[in-house]
Amino acid sequence: NLSYKLDRAFKTLKGTGKITEINVATTVKEIRRALIDADVNYKVAKEVTDTIKTEALGRDVLISVSPGQLLVKITQEELTKLMGGTKEDISLKGDPNVILISGLQGSGKTTFSGKLATHLKKQGRQVLLVACDIYRPAAIEQLKTLGEQIGVEVYAEPENKNALDIASKAIEYAKKNGKKNVIVDTAGRLAVDEQMMNEISDLKKHLDPAETLFVVDSMTGQDAVNTAKTFDERLNFDGVVLTKLDGDTRGGAAISIRHVVDKPIKFISTGEKMENLDVFYPDRMAQRILGMGDVVSLVEKAQESFDEDEAKRINAKIRKNQFNFDDFLSQIEQIKKMGNLKDLMGMIPGMGKMIKGMDIDDDSFKPIEAIIRSMTPLERENPDVIDGSRRKRIADGSGRSIQEVNNLMKQFRDMRKMMKQMNKMGGAQRALGNLM
Ligand code: GDP
Ligand code: MG
């Protein structure tokens, strides 16, 4: 699935410290494929990923995020922008305020009409539902049942076969009865046909609705885009309602539709129940499309994990020449949480030399950690007390050789020396400030 594919795309970048042409190109190709699989139109997917590429290459990789995580962010930002950036409300200015509901049969118009009525009622507004699906008696019954369920009046004329006539009378009725909002549910065919199009565009022309909404089933993928285009050419609608986003749905249609008709998506519908209606938020949708709620929270966690207080604490210790093995261990813990080990390690004063030519991954720290963990609290805090016999005990306890313990001791001393020098130059804070 998409989530897996993107995960793989981002993994390509994990562990690489810099965003380069090559690793971006690889990742961007994977992102594009994943978007296309999520029903984002090919041309749109290509445009998005081209933008992501340019954006990514222009940005510095913050120390606190890996290139992969940065690309996640950029991708999400771009998708959000593509869907309009911010949420857009429906217009409720008319008097009465007519909302015309259009779309194919089965797209969820009647269900949405009920949901919108519920939504407006909750805001304390007076609503009238109008049954203009004149072709199927069952459709009128369906709306009436919904109306009873949610406590909203439904205007219907089962014998009348003229949708425009019904709607016009309903609006008169609304005016007389103080119903400020009139939701007109219309008929839809299984595929776009001329009669349906004429009927709905007539309704639009004569009712002059404040808001014409196009309802589309998100599960229909590319067809959704084509239908949206056809309806928009005839109706010039004001907004889109994306339905059936509850199942195994591909939110990618949201991007394509927005891109092709350039009309905002205003609501999404995520179930058959009346309360399953949500205002459309582009950023949330971007997250959903990428299927990376988890990835995003991981990124956030990583950023938090490089704890600011801890950084300040260690900075102070370096300044006072009190950096000890406990601090060293805590640094290793932090770094392990972050990824990008080599680059990060290289930024700890004195560490660069130590890791030169080494293959750094989580396992590389194991011997060091084992040795430090075998030290007593006193030894960690005051490395100077570690004499020959203590080294032997530490080596035995950690299962490492005395040679390795000696090496670590020497490296640690070098690190401290380096830190001291940097202190004199006033650079330690800068160097570590960068790191943290
Ligand atoms: P209409 O022909 O456009 O009026 O479509 P309906 O409102 O009658 O909906 C067609 C079918 O889709 C019905 O069975 C609805 O219960 C169902 N439906 C509508 N919206 C949603 C949704 O958001 N999620 C799911 N799962 N089903 C929906
Ligand atoms: Mg219907």
From TrEMBL:
User: Where do the SRP54-type proteins GTP-binding domain residues begin and end?
Assistant: 264-277
The record ties this protein, via InterPro entries, to: AAA+_ATPase, P-loop_NTPase, Signal_recog_part_SRP54_M_sf, Signal_recog_particl_SRP54_hlx, Signal_recog_particle_SRP54_M, SRP, SRP54, SRP54_GTPase_dom
GO BP annotation list: SRP-dependent cotranslational protein targeting to membrane
Known EC number = 3.6.5.4
Q: Does the keyword Nucleus apply?
A: no
Record-linked Pfam families: SRP54 (PF00448), SRP54_N (PF02881), SRP_SPB (PF02978)
Function of this protein?
Answer: Involved in targeting and insertion of nascent membrane proteins into the cytoplasmic membrane. Binds to the hydrophobic signal sequence of the ribosome-nascent chain (RNC) as it emerges from the ribosomes. The SRP-RNC complex is then targeted to the cytoplasmic membrane where it interacts with the SRP receptor FtsY.
Q: What is the name attached to this protein's record?
A: Signal recognition particle protein
Q: Which gene encodes it?
A: ffh
